[in-house]
């Protein structure tokens, strides 16, 4: 079985959504993945400079075939800044971007929509199918 290398862009302030997505992917049948994301408890989280964190993200994305962006609209302006940086890194590395819209979300970041290669709703089989599709492009 193929292992899909992914990076999930997410806000540390909303890490529960990241956790829910990783659990959803772990439960998906016939789907094996390696997550190169930077969770809240990762030591990189304590990087003293934005540039250090950006370099760590870029290094982790090098190993990935698909970049996933949790596409809700957040009030935290620093998250928007990091989404933009992560999207630009993905584009620089020619990595496809999968945007996931939450259940019940009424709005999605226009920036994310404009830069995503594919957008799906919060549904395990849709997410897994999109990852496989983008991986094989």
TrEMBL record:
<protein>
    <submittedName>
        <fullName>Molecular chaperone Tir</fullName>
    </submittedName>
</protein>
<feature type="domain" description="TIR">
    <location>
        <begin position="2"/>
        <end position="137"/>
    </location>
</feature>
<dbReference type="InterPro" id="IPR015032">
    <property type="entry name" value="ThsB__TIR-like_domain"/>
</dbReference>
<dbReference type="InterPro" id="IPR036490">
    <property type="entry name" value="ThsB_TIR-like_sf"/>
</dbReference>
<dbReference type="GO" id="GO:0007165">
    <property type="term" value="P:signal transduction"/>
</dbReference>
<dbReference type="Pfam" id="PF08937">
    <property type="entry name" value="ThsB_TIR"/>
</dbReference>
<dbReference type="InterPro" id="IPR000157">
    <property type="entry name" value="TIR_dom"/>
</dbReference>
């Amino acid at each position: 079985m193929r292992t899909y290398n992914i990076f999930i862009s997410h806000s540390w302030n909303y890490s529960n959504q990241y956790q829910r997505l990783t659990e959803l992917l772990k439960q998906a049948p016939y789907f094996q993945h390696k997550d190169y994301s930077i969770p809240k408890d990762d030591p990189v989280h304590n990087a003293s400079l934005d540039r250090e964190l950006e370099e760590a993200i870029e290094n982790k994305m090098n190993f990935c075939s698909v970049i996933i962006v949790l596409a809700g609209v957040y009030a935290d302006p620093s998250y928007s800044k990091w989404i933009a940086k992560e999207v630009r890194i993905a584009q620089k590395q020619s990595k496809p971007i999968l945007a996931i819209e939450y259940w019940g979300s009424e709005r999605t970041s226009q920036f994310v929509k404009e830069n995503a290669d594919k957008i799906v709703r919060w549904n395990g089989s849709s997410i897994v199918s999109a990852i496989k599709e983008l991986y094989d492009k």
